[in-house]
Write a structure and sequence with these properties.
Layout lengths: L10 H34 L56 E5 L11 E14 L2 E17 L5 E7 L16 H12 L5 H10 L6 H14 L1 H11 L4 E12 L7 E11 L4 E7 L5 H6 L5 E4 L15 E4 L2 H10 L5 H23 L4 H27 L9 H11 L1 H4 L13 H17 L5 H19 L4 H11 L13 H11 L5
Helix pairs in contact: 2-4, 2-14, 7-8, 7-10, 8-9, 9-10
Length: about 525
C-alpha cells in the first residue's frame, strides 16, 4: 500500500511569494526596456511619436514636435584669473587698410559755412558689414573755426564739429556699425555660433577683432534692446491667453569660479497676438511664474509641472493642460502594454483629427468651438470613462508605465478638457515647445551663459528673434535697422520697433506713390 506524501503546509505561501517576485521582476524588466528605448531614441536621434491603429489609418502625429532634448550635464570650468599687474591698457587697433572705404561727410548745423574757416577734420572709422562683405564706413566730420567779434575789439574763436549720429555708430566711441553689430548678435543667438568661432570667421577675411572686443560689443548691443524688451513684457501681460514652459541653461557662478549653476528660461507665448517672451530665472521654483503672472487674468496653458499647481486657487486664471504630453506618455507605454496604449492613442488621435479638420477648413474660433462641442466633447467623455475603469483594474501593475500614464492623465483631466470652452484655445502647447527648441541647439554650441546677467540679456534677444521667425522677417535686416534707430526712437513709440509692427510699417513704406 502506497502512502501519499504530504505537501508542505506553507506551499501556498511559497507560491504566492514566488508570484510576487515574478511580478516585481516583470515590472523591473518593463522599466529597463522603457529606459533602453528612451536611450536608443536619444542615441539614434529618432523622436517620432507617430501612431497608426491597426483598425483604421489615423494620421494623428503629423504636427507633433520632437521630445525635448536631454538636459546638459553640469560642468566645471577651470579658468586662470590674471593678476592685476598683468592687465594692460587696451589699445584699439587700426582697421585693415585693404578694406574698401565709403565716406559720409557730416557738416555742423546752425553755422554759415561760407563765413567759417575750415581748419581740419576728424575722421572716425566704423567697421561695417553687409552679408558676406566687410567694408569700412569712413565718417568725415569737418572742423570749423568761427571768429566772433566781442566788445572793445576782442575776438572769440569757436570750434564747431558735427556729432556722430547713432544711426552710424550705435555704441558710442566704438568702431562697430549697426550692420556688423546685428550680424554678430544674429550669428550667436539665431545661428548659435559662439563668439570665438565668429572671430575665426572674421580672421579668414583678414579682419582681426579680439574676442574680448566682440564680447563687449555683444553686451552693449543687447543693452540697447532693453527698452524694447520691457515694452514687450508690458504688452504680453495684457493677454487673455498664455502658454508657458521652461527650459534649463547652465550659468557660470561668480561666487564659485569654475562651477556652473542650473538656471531656467521661462517662456510665455500669446497665440492670439503672437507675442513671445523669454525670461531668465535662477531656479525652476514656482516663484518665477508667480512673479511674472501677478495680475494676469485669463487662460494659462502648461504641462503637468507641479510649479503651476499654485494657480488652481487663483479665480482669475483658468488652467489648461497639454494633450501632446498625454499622448507622449501613452506612446512610451506601447512596448509594455500595447492594447491599453493603443486604445488611449486612438482616442487622442480622433481629437487631433477634429483639430486638423478645423485648421484645414480655416474655421473661425466660433466655428471651431461648435465643432468641438459636437464631436470632441463626446470623445472626451468616453475617454474619461475608459481611464477611470482602467485605473481600477487589478490587471494593471501599480508601478507600470501604463498606470503612470493613466494617473498623469486623470490628475490633469479638468485642465485637459478646458480647451473645449473656447475656440481660441489650443489642444496642446506644442507651439511654445517649438519656440524653445532653438535653446537646445544653443546649449550644445556655447554650453553655458557667462553670468546671470548675460543669461537675462540672452533672454531679451531670444524673445525678439523668436517673433522675427513668427513674422517671417529677415532678422539681420530687422536688427540692423532697430540698432540704428532705437536710441532716437521716442519711448511712446518704441513698440513700433517690435518685429510685427516693424513689418507692418515696412509694408506701408514699400507702397509706391500714385
Amino acid at each position: 500500500m502506497q502512502t501519499a506524501i504530504a505537501a508542505p503546509q506553507n506551499w501556498q505561501e511559497i507560491l504566492a511569494e514566488k508570484d510576487r517576485q515574478i511580478a516585481q521582476l516583470e515590472l523591473r524588466l518593463q522599466a529597463a526596456e522603457h529606459n533602453l528605448a528612451q536611450l536608443l531614441k536619444l542615441f539614434k536621434g529618432s523622436k517620432t511619436e507617430r501612431f497608426v491603429p491597426s483598425a483604421e489609418q489615423l494620421s494623428i502625429f503629423e504636427d507633433m514636435a520632437p521630445a525635448p532634448s536631454a538636459e546638459p550635464l553640469s560642468q566645471t570650468i577651470t579658468r586662470k584669473i590674471p593678476h592685476k599687474k598683468d592687465k594692460q591698457q587696451p589699445i584699439r587697433k587700426l582697421l585693415p587698410p585693404q578694406l574698401p572705404r565709403q565716406t559720409t561727410t557730416i557738416e555742423p548745423e546752425g553755422i554759415d559755412l561760407e563765413t567759417a574757416t575750415k581748419i581740419g577734420q576728424e575722421i572716425t572709422e566704423v567697421l561695417e558689414y553687409k552679408p558676406g562683405k566687410f567694408f569700412v564706413n569712413q565718417i568725415i566730420r569737418p572742423k570749423y573755426k568761427i571768429n566772433e567779434n566781442i566788445e572793445n575789439g576782442l575776438e572769440r574763436v569757436d570750434i564747431q564739429i558735427a556729432s556722430i549720429p547713432t544711426t552710424l555708430q550705435p555704441i558710442a566711441k566704438s568702431n562697430v556699425g549697426p550692420g556688423l553689430l546685428a550680424h554678430i548678435l544674429i550669428c550667436k543667438y539665431e545661428d548659435h555660433l559662439p563668439l570665438y568661432r565668429q572671430r575665426k570667421i572674421f580672421l579668414r577675411e583678414k579682419v582681426n577683432i579680439p574676442e574680448s572686443t566682440i564680447g563687449n560689443w555683444t553686451r552693449q548691443g543687447l543693452n540697447l534692446l532693453i527698452p524694447l524688451y520691457e515694452n514687450l513684457l508690458t504688452s504680453i501681460k495684457k493677454a487673455s491667453y498664455l502658454m508657458a514652459d521652461e527650459s534649463p541653461i547652465a550659468v557660470l557662478e561668480s561666487a564659485k569660479p569654475g562651477a556652473t549653476h542650473k538656471g531656467y528660461y521661462w517662456v510665455y507665448y500669446d497665440p492670439i497676438s503672437q507675442l513671445l517672451v523669454f525670461q531668465y530665472h535662477k531656479s525652476r521654483s514656482g516663484d518665477a511664474p508667480r512673479e511674472f503672472l501677478a495680475g494676469f487674468s485669463g487662460y494659462l496653458q502648461t504641462d503637468g509641472y507641479a510649479g503651476y499647481d499654485q494657480f488652481e486657487v487663483n479665480e482669475e486664471i483658468v488652467q489648461l493642460a497639454c494633450m501632446a504630453h498625454v499622448r507622449r506618455k501613452f506612446f512610451e507605454a506601447l512596448q509594455n502594454d500595447k492594447v491599453r496604449a493603443e486604445q488611449a492613442l486612438t482616442y487622442i488621435g480622433k481629437l487631433y483629427d477634429i483639430e486638423r479638420e478645423a485648421k484645414e477648413s480655416k474655421m473661425s474660433h466660433e466655428q471651431r468651438q461648435q465643432l468641438r462641442t459636437n464631436q470632441a466633447a463626446p470623445i472626451m467623455v468616453e475617454m474619461e470613462k475608459w481611464l477611470l475603469k482602467e485605473s481600477k483594474s487589478d490587471m494593471l501593475a501599480p508601478k507600470s508605465i501604463t498606470r503612470k500614464a493613466i494617473s498623469y492623465t486623470l490628475n490633469l483631466w479638468d485642465r485637459l478638457k478646458n480647451y473645449l470652452a473656447d475656440g481660441k484655445l489650443e489642444i496642446d502647447n506644442n507651439w511654445i515647445e517649438n519656440k524653445i527648441r532653438p535653446l537646445a541647439i544653443g546649449r550644445k554650441n556655447y554650453l553655458f551663459a557667462g553670468s546671470h546677467e548675460s543669461a537675462q540679456r540672452a533672454a531679451m534677444i531670444y524673445s525678439l528673434l523668436a517673433m522675427c521667425r513668427l513674422e517671417a522677417i529677415n532678422p539681420q535686416e530687422w536688427l540692423a535697422d532697430v540698432l540704428s534707430r532705437i536710441q532716437d526712437q521716442h519711448i511712446n513709440k518704441i513698440q513700433d520697433l517690435l518685429p510685427k509692427n516693424w513689418k507692418a510699417n515696412q509694408a506701408i513704406n514699400d507702397i509706391p506713390d500714385l
